[in-house]
Amino acid sequence: MSYNARFRIWRGDDTDGELEDFSVEVKEGEVILDIIHRLQATQTPDLAVRWNCKAGKCGSCSAEVNGRPRLMCMTRMSTFTEDEVITVTPLRAFPVIKDLVTDVSFNYQKAREVPAFAPPMELALGEYRMQQVDVERSQEFRKCIECFLCQDTCHVIRDHDENKESFAGPRFFIRLASWTCTRWTPRTASAKRRRPTAWACATSPSAAPRCAPSTSRSRTTRSSR
């Protein structure tokens, strides 16, 4: 059984963009990533999306589906009704490169700064011993698939403008509305345009001021992880 679903996909880069509407065929058993691939093949071949394994193992296809951080390869179309409009946008906590692809290089930069483990120099090779509890602690971190959805969910990054610049690195700055607002506006430090882009506010036009991003700026920055 198949049907035509309505999608709204973020199209743009780090300076400007908007949500575009698509009507695309959906087949039984498919996931969001299947639909994105069909859009690339049939309607918008220049749509940028990051993916790799399509099995929930690599974390590459992270995005926000209807405002919630998800892996597109693990989000089944059967969870939505046939008349529902499905909105797919890039992760809010990271700078947009193009369309659904965000710049997560900050995480790899910080990972390279973590020093490699070295046993005490006074011990000969093979003499160092570790407790099993310490082995289990280190193995816990190896379970991470680097989807970065935990960071996208974190309100300290999503909702506080003063933290985004240090988190995203010196080249980027994302200006976002509050968590309760449906307007989504990527910005960079060098961006000069200030007209709103992206999510049209779900409320009436008269309610738009409630969705406007805060203009207050704090100089406090988050410490590096």
Look at the structure and give the mean pLDDT: 75
Give helix and strand order, one letter per element, not per position: EEHEEEEEHHHHH
Shape: elongated
* Whole-number tally of structural domains: 1
Measured by DSSP, the beta-strand proportion falls in: 15-25%
CATH architecture: Roll
Number of helices: 6
How are strands sequenced across the largest beta sheet?
Answer: 2-1-5-3-4
Q: By CATH's scheme, which homologous superfamily applies? A: Beta-grasp domain
Can you tell me the CATH topology? Ubiquitin-like (UB roll)
Largest sheet: 5 strands, mixed
CA radius of gyration is: 21 Å
CATH class: Alpha Beta
Terminal CA distance: 48 Å
Number of beta-strand segments: 7
Q: Give the % helix.
A: 10-25%
Low-confidence blocks of residues:
169-225
Query: What structural class should be given to the helix and strand makeup?
Result: alpha+beta
